[in-house]
Design brief:
heterodimer, A: mainly beta, Ubiquitin-like (UB roll), two-stranded antiparallel sheet, B: Flavocytochrome C3, Chain A, domain 1, 3 domains
Chain lengths: 119, 560
């Protein structure tokens, strides 16, 4: 019997009305929390929203979440064979599940001013 | 959810914010154009550049006498007869200027005795590769360009914008349709000129060294917009990608700089060096080129001489600890956190999909042949032929990005207005804003299945049986994917993003596999077990286009 990590993952699009989904994830020493989340997407629920790009290198800095209430990078936080509670960053605007609005305002899309002209 | 799109308007749309995209945006804005720099991830964080821990090849002559023509000769030699000579020349000739500009912008190239250090790398005839210590080339390049982008007037940035299709009108590209991840809404971008700086396709493979957004989307966008692709069968496998023990917080290609500086020994499970049996005698130096290295490791594994996890051992046990620390400073501590002590143990490495030589066919003005559509960086095919020389990727990102930005700004200055009512805008909006489908499929699992197929059957070793098996599997996946998107279309809908990605990935996987099957020879990164020799008749570039929705290959005699 392989060891399991228990990931309690916050889900929802409304910060005031979310719920937790709990998944058992196979545990191998050396894995990251992001590995566990990616496993959930492939094997349990592809709708789970997480933000990541570089997967492993801790170069993109996109995968910030809260683990048991502390801010971590999911790609460098180690998976452990116990219950881990994962929530979106509490100081950022929620987008969905573990995804928050972390881009600086100047790097977010804004429509061009609409002057009614079809150009 | 609404099918009423948000709209944006710009002179030059740059898709992708790696080094090529950011350099292009800077140059286009300096050329007077209004620029929209779009990325599906955060600006300047995703893509391959930020992951590059290695070196940048350039005939700077700061350490040893050099001239771009020497770099050019090495590039052509590495390309195994298939390089586009004009693009290779542009890369080598303009490289030094871009490197100096990056130096002025404060990237911090490593220096010794008052000059920029240039390291010797496999395939180069002299020390030519600049870098930023320690393992920091990519992050430093990204950060420097982000800073310049932020200081340059005229660039609007938009992250979380996933481009779904290029828009066309009267045969010209006039912008793009995008999914705005933050809201789930469609966006119609009108642009006079569009630059694809979307990088390569390494995400098609299970073991890869790039970001999760490198699924070949730019190739699919270009193909559907009427552009041609070239050399698509040539996927570079980086021989010594980290395999075991599990390592977090570091890029799997991290061992290359160690080898540049310290040599290191590549061993099979008998603890014997083996690259000499494949034509590359190392003698403690790092000389084995990427195509030969990958082939050698895969063959050793096949012969039962692989490491426990299916690769080779890389050992620095013969290097004194003080020397290791001098070469790698804080990286040694990071390794210790992962339980790795290089003085006591070898690590395991195996080939990993790293770079794509093929890409969008473009001329030296980065024009694709489709009016209004330009390409830059790794997304451009041809400069590196059948195998890329170490260090050429970031050089190419700078040089091609700069050129594309200049030319696109010039084009936009002369062009009439981009048109919001492009021919295919309604179809794209319909796709982006579709309601939830009747039938649910596991999109994340499909991505993994496709990666396994590509790794196993269209990887570093290929044969007809495997390639045909892959085509059957890809065809079945295309059927399974269907033509209506998954997901509910609300904000940050991962199933919808997966579905849109798979639409592109499956198309590109099919192109790579068909091109690999057609090329009945071994050359550079393509190793055909059933055709082990390089055939002089195959000194040919295969161009790819879409005709009535089907892939068409046109072989043309190589110019180099």
């Amino acid at each position: 019997m392989t060891e399991q990590a228990t990931l309690k993952v916050w889900r929802g699009t409304d910060a005031a009305a979310g719920h937790f989904d709990t998944h058992q994830v196979p545990f191998e020493p050396g894995q990251s929390v992001l590995d566990g989340l990616r496993w959930i997407r492939v094997h349990r629920d592809p709708s789970l929203a997480i933000r990541f790009s570089c997967i492993n290198a801790n170069a993109c800095k996109e995968c910030m979440i809260e683990l048991d209430g502390k801010t971590v990078y999911a790609c460098t936080a180690r998976l452990t064979p116990q219950e881990m509670t994962l929530t979106p960053l509490s100081n950022k605007k929620l987008v969905r599940d573990l995804v928050t609005e972390i881009a600086p305002p100047a790097e977010r899309f804004a429509p061009s001013p609409d002057d009614g002209l079809r150009r | 959810m609404t099918a009423d799109p948000m709209r944006a308007e710009t002179d030059v749309l740059v898709i992708g914010s790696g080094a090529a995209g950011m350099y292009a945006a800077i140059e286009a804005a300096r050329g007077g154009a209004k620029v929209l720099l779009a990325d599906r991830s955060l600006i300047g964080r995703g893509g391959a550049t930020v992951m590059a821990q290695m070196t940048v090849a350039v005939a700077l002559g700061s350490q040893t006498d050099d001239h771009w023509s020497h770099h050019y000769q090495d590039t052509l030699k590495a390309g195994r007869g298939l390089s586009n000579p004009a693009l290779a020349q542009l890369l080598c000739e303009d490289g030094p200027d871009c490197i100096r500009t990056m130096d002025e912008w404060g990237v911090g190239w490593a220096r010794k005795d008052g000059h920029i250090t240039q390291a010797m790398a496999p395939g180069h005839d002299r020390p030519r590769c600049v870098y930023v210590d320690f393992l920091n080339t990519g992050p430093a390049v990204s950060k420097t360009l982000r800073t310049v982008v932020n200081k340059t007037a005229g660039i609007t940035k938009a992250g979380d914008l996933c481009i779904v299709d290029l828009l066309h009108h009267d045969g010209a590209v006039v912008g793009a349709a995008a999914l705005h991840l933050g809201s789930g809404a469609p966006v119609i971008i009108s642009a006079k000129a569009t630059i694809l700086a979307t990088g390569g396709l390494t995400r098609l493979y299970r073991r890869n060294s790039a970001s999760s957004n490198m699924g070949g989307d730019g190739y699919a966008l270009a193909l559907r917009a009427g552009a041609r692709l070239v050399d698509m069968e040539f996927v570079q496998f980086f021989p010594i990608g980290h395999l075991a023990p599990r390592l977090i917080g570091m890029d799997p290609i991290m061992w290359d700089p160690f080898r540049y500086k310290l040599g290191g020994r590549l061993l099979n499970n008998k603890m014997e060096e083996f690259t000499q049996n494949y034509g590359a005698v190392e003698n403690g130096k790092y000389v084995v080129t990427r195509d030969v290295g990958s082939y050698a490791i895969v063959k050793e594994v096949e012969a039962g001489r692989g490491s426990p996890n299916g690769g080779a051992f890389l050992s620095f046990q013969h290097v004194p600890e003080t020397k290791l620390r001098e070469a790698f400073g804080p990286v040694i501590d990071k390794l210790a956190e992962n339980g790795i002590d290089l003085t006591k143990m070898p690590i395991e490495v195996a080939p990993i999909a790293h770079y794509h030589m093929g890409g969008i066919a473009a001329d030296t003005q980065m024009q694709t042949g489709v009016p209004g559509l330009f390409a830059a960086g790794e997304a451009v095919g041809g400069a590196n032929g059948a195998n890329r020389l170490s260090g050429n990727a970031i050089t190419e990102a700078f040089v091609f990005g700069r050129r594309a930005g200049r030319v696109a700004a010039d084009y936009a200055g002369k062009a009439t207005r981009g048109r919001a009512d492009a021919d295919n805008a309604p179809a794209a909006i319909d796709l982006i804003a579709a309601g939830a489908p009747d039938r649910e499929i596991n999109t994340a699992e499909m991505v993994q299945t496709l990666q396994a197929t590509m790794q196993d059957d269209v990887g570093a070793l290929r044969n007809e049986t495997g390639l045909k098996r892959a085509l059957t599997q890809i065809e079945a996946m295309a059927q399974d994917l269907g033509d209506r998107p998954q997901g509910d279309g609300h904000r940050f809908d991962m199933r919808r993003v997966d579905w849109l990605d798979l639409r592109n990935m499956i198309q590109v996987a099919r192109v790579v596999t068909e091109a690999a099957l057609a090329r009945t020879e071994t050359r550079g990164a393509q190793h055909r077990e059933d055709y082990p020799d390089t055939a002089p008749d195959w000194a040919v570039n295969q161009f790819v286009s879409l005709r009535d929705g089907r892939i068409a290959l046109s072989p043309e005699k190589a110019a180099s």
